[in-house]
Structures are given as C-alpha cells and as structure tokens.
Design brief:
about 10% strand; alpha/beta; binds NADP nicotinamide-adenine-dinucleotide phosphate; Rossmann fold; eight-stranded mixed beta sheet
Length: about 325
Amino acid sequence: MASFLKVTLFGSSNSKATAFTPATDIPSLAGRTILITGGAGDLGRAAAISLAAHGLPAHIIIADLPRDSAAQETALSAIRSALPAAAQESVKLSFLDLDLGSLDAVADAARRFREVAPEGRLDLLVLNAGIMPVKAGTTRDGYEVAFGVNYLGHALLARLLLPMMVETQKVQGDVRVVVVASEGHSMAPKGGVVFEKVKGDCKDMTYFRRYGQSKVALIGLAKTLAAEYPQLKIAAVHPGRIATGLGKTLAQDSKLIRYTGFLAKYMTTTLDLGVLNHLWAAVSPDVQSGFYYIPVGILDKKTIIEKDTTLAGRLKEWTDNELKGRY
Ligand SMILES: NC(=O)c1ccc[n+]([C@@H]2O[C@H](COP(=O)([O-])OP(=O)(O)OC[C@H]3O[C@@H](n4cnc5c(N)ncnc54)[C@H](OP(=O)(O)O)[C@@H]3O)[C@@H](O)[C@H]2O)c1
C-alpha cells in the first residue's frame, strides 16, 4: 500500500525534463512505417497524431483490440480528423486487429501485419497498449492478465516483427522500439517478477502489484532486446500521469479510485504533455538503447531491472521458455 500511495501522490520526479517540442523536434519520417499497439487508446492516438502531423511518415498502423470495420474507421478518423491537410493526404492510416491476451492472436496479427503493410518494412514499433485490471484473472493462455497482455503478448509481437525491423535498419539506419512502461514498476512485488506465480491469476497480489510486475517486465524487455539487437534503438518510457481510458476502466472497478476521482485533475497532466516521452524516445538522437526514461528524456537507473543485475537475464530465460516454438 505504501508504494501505491507514494506513486499516486508523488509520482516520478521530472524536474530536469528535456525540452521537447513535437512541431520542431520530430524530424521528417518520410517513407517510414510505424506500428502503435493500443493506438485507438488515448496515448496511442496522441502519439499517432503527433508523429503523422510533424513527421509525415508513409504509413501508421494502429493495432488494437478487434472491432468491426465501422469501429475501426471511427478509430482511424479520430486520428485523421486531427491532422493538418498535408498529413491527411500523405499519411496512410490502417487498423490491425490485435488481442495481446492470446498468444495465437498475437501470432496471427504479426502475420496479418505483412498484409496490412505490404511495403515490407517496419521503422518504429511502439508497444503502448496496456491494462490495469482490478479483478484477478488470466489470459487465454493462463497467464496473469496484466502480465500476459502488457508484457508477454508484447514480447511475442516484438519477437515476430524484429526480423523485419533488422532488414529495415539495413536500408534506413534509425529503427526503434519504444516500450511503454510506467512508474508503477515501483509497485511490483518483492523481486520484481514472481516467476512461479505469473502462470496463474496472482490473486494473492493487489492489482497494483500485478500491474507493477508487468511494467518491471517491460523495462526488462527493453534491456534484453537492446542487448540482442545493438543495431536498433530500444528504450522503455513512463509517460507521466494522464487521465486516459486506463483510469476510466480502473474507476469502474475500484471504489477507492471512484471516491478519490475528484482529485484526478490535480494529479494528472494533459495528453499533449503525457505523450512527449513516447515521442522523444521515438525520434531523439539522445536515446540510449536498453534504458528506462521518465518524462521527458530523463534516464532513470533506479528500477529493479538496473539494481538486480540478474533479473533481466532470468526474465529472458523464462520468456524464451514460455514462447518456445512461437517465433
Ligand atoms: N495514463 C497514464 O497515466 C499512464 C501512466 C503510466 C503508464 N501508462 C501506460 O500507457 C499506455 C497507454 O495507456 P493509456 O493511458 O493511453 O490508456 P488507454 O486509453 O486505456 O489505452 C490503452 C489501449 O490499449 C488497448 N488494449 C487493452 N487491452 C488490449 C489487448 N488485450 N490487446 C490489444 N490492445 C489492448 C485498449 O483498448 P480498449 O480501449 O478497446 O480496451 C486501449 O486502446 C499503457 O501501457 C499504460 O500502462 C499510462
């Protein structure tokens, strides 16, 4: 509870934030293909809008929970209608059905990505989708649901798309993965990830410990993938605290969050500010691969992934074992 209150009340310190202005700091992304998971959600949509408006990439693919074609079009037009005319005309927007809560569905999405993006390249992958479920539960494959959706589904998606990204890097040198973690990593259980329990519902943990555990694993994912793919830039970010769909879902299931909801406006920032760390990690030349950043562009080496030098390796070993035969 103490870690939950500390994060809720004080959050990460960002007094030394890097100045980042999307209109002038996002360079030309001409010709590039970008995939954003959770791109129909608030931060994902805000990232898509800024990257499209200021970088004019060739193609942005929004990957989010499956929906019918009318609902897909609604999600895409929420982005398109926020763009200036030049971006509306030149940036192709597509929707890719993706359910991170099923490893088979993730594999299917990676296969369909090649149909949705026949250009056969991927320059930027933003692993942004995320959930913070109050009720304990498991994914279709039996993993704790926050861990399965936030971490394991993303780990498989990245594994399946990285070979294409490596090929893209040979043509266009700056290829990246942005892993959206959270300051909530500090609410994880002792040890960061309880490997013996994540194949199960972890119902003896509070929901914020389960969320924290999934975010520790995402910071570990950035570290291990960066070591394996030195030709790419792979960094984890915390966006800040923003009133988004995540909080609305949380409020539905948590009395505490509902009763304290009136305080949210004093504790949250705007979407425009909240998306800056995503954007910074997507384009800044200053990103150091393998590390976790708090807003904006502040290197944070105080996570358990940095402190316990064996954790990222144990996470990779566990993950390779669980995903064996899938990539
Ligand atoms: N907001 C904050 O203060 C904050 C702070 C720290 C970190 N973050 C992180 O920022 C990221 C973006 O969250 P957000 O704040 O923008 O919340 P959001 O508006 O709820 O967006 C999350 C998106 O992920 C999608 N999603 C949920 N389950 C999925 C699944 N199984 N497969 C594929 N997509 C799925 C959601 O789809 P539906 O809407 O259809 O469910 C939604 O579009 C998350 O990783 C979150 O943990 C947010």
